[in-house]
Design brief:
alpha+beta; Butyryl-CoA Dehydrogenase, subunit A, domain 2; single chain
């Protein structure tokens, strides 16, 4: 997987691997049992530059190519999916500002995002609309040359600890064709009118805060409209979400790899009828399917990353990668529980947690049915480059 990486890129991945295996994996069970926030591990992530994965080097980040970016996310998630979740939406925010931000916005925010001084979160969904982002009611009301933002945003990952909220909102006036206009606003959470009102309790990822944020007449300078031009936020967001989907797919691959490792280890140690259970054909067939799905998910994720980093249109292959990798993660995690038998239902075994966590990847960064619709539209557009269809 890393043959195309430079020596520096390979060393970055190896450094993350050492951190994941030596510092993270031994502590996961304890953190999961206590439910405490892993502040020391987050500090080490900051020191390693992992909050600067998507920040260009000129602003203090690592500026990784997307294939290396995906390898880092898989490596983090292989040890503990929670750490990958801390960096995911943060990296999406950083990518959006690095790609579309004005020079002023880049100078003001990217260095802080690279060092972890700023933590980024996406504010998209609202209580009355989930996947249908064009139905949002959050509004940027003109206030002289600036704006007042009124919005209610829900399921905001890392929203309690975030300092920068990249927020999708509509303008009261439509464009010339009568279509709604949307912009992405860079909202500093310390602004007046921003309040975290609810922290949601979830079936997994307990140390990753997921919150509802109310924004009432929040003053937004025109300097903080992403890119400086209004009405193009939806296009900017779709591009940024492609990066987010690659991160989610890579994280799902990491979870799946962890589940395969746990199943293989248990099967080699657990004995029934006088032999280790990995000698039973029923277990061998299950492990073979798990391994095959894992490698296939990794390959499609890296292909999506390659397409995106070369500047090609990536909505179809990105949606495929997120869809396939997340559903593979669920299937592999489920099979890992089955390999463990009754032990797989016990919290002391990692596969119990991995099975609960895997489901989130089918929901985040666009539900899998939304991604199926993206794929279906591109099939209709005759996407021969990806599908290899005959003319």
């Amino acid at each position: 997987m890393h043959e195309s990486f430079s020596d520096v890129e390979r060393e970055i991945v190896r450094t993350v691997e050492r951190f994941a295996e030596e510092r993270v994996r031994p502590l996961v069970a304890g953190y999961e049992a206590s439910g405490t926030f892993p502040a020391d591990l987050v500090d080490e992530m900051v020191q390693l530059g992992l909050f600067g994965l998507a920040v260009p080097e000129e602003f203090g980040g690592l500026g990784l190519r997307l294939t290396v970016f995906a390898a880092v996310f898989e490596t983090l998630a292989r040890a503990w999916t929670t750490l990958a979740a801390y960096a995911n939406s943060h990296a999406t925010v950083a990518h959006a500002i690095a790609t579309y931000g004005t020079e002023d916005q880049k100078r003001r925010y990217l260095p802080g995002l690279a060092t972890g001084e700023h933590r980024g979160a996406l504010c998209l969904s609202e209580p009355d609309c989930g996947s249908d982002l064009q139905a949002i009611r959050g509004t940027l009301v003109p206030d002289g040359e600036d704006y007042r933002l009124n919005a209610s945003k829900t399921y905001v990952t890392n929203g309690r600890r975030a300092t920068l909220l990249l927020t999708l909102a509509r303008h009261p006036q439509s464009d010339a064709a009568g279509k709604p206009r949307f912009s992405l606003a860079i909202v500093e959470k310390a602004c007046d009118g921003v309040e975290v009102t609810t922290t949601f309790r979830k079936m997994a990822f307990g140390q990753v805060d997921t919150v509802q944020i109310e924004m009432s007449a929040v003053p937004i300078s025109s300097r903080n409209i992403l890119g400086g031009d209004t009405g193009i936020g939806f296009r900017q967001l779709m591009d940024a979400l492609e990066v987010g989907r690659i991160a989610i797919a890579a994280s799902a691959v990491g979870l799946a790899a962890n589940a395969v490792a746990e199943a293989r280890k248990f099967a080699a140690e657990r004995r029934t009828f006088g032999v280790a259970i990995d000698q039973h054909q029923a277990i061998q067939l299950k492990l073979a399917d798990m391994a095959t799905r894992l490698v296939a998910a990794r390959l499609i994720t890296m292909e999506a990353a390659r397409e995106k980093e070369t500047g090609k249109r990536c909505d179809m292959i990105g949606a495929m990668a997120k869809l396939f990798a997340s559903e593979v993660a669920v299937k592999i995690a489920q099979d890992a529980v089955k390999v463990h038998g009754g032990a797989g239902y016990i919290k002391e075994y990692a596969v119990e947690r991995l099975y609960r966590e895997a489901l989130l990847y089918t929901i985040g960064e666009g539900t899998n049915d939304i991604n199926r619709l993206v794929i279906a539209r591109r099939i209709k557009d005759d996407e021969r480059g990806i599908l290899g269809l005959p003319y």
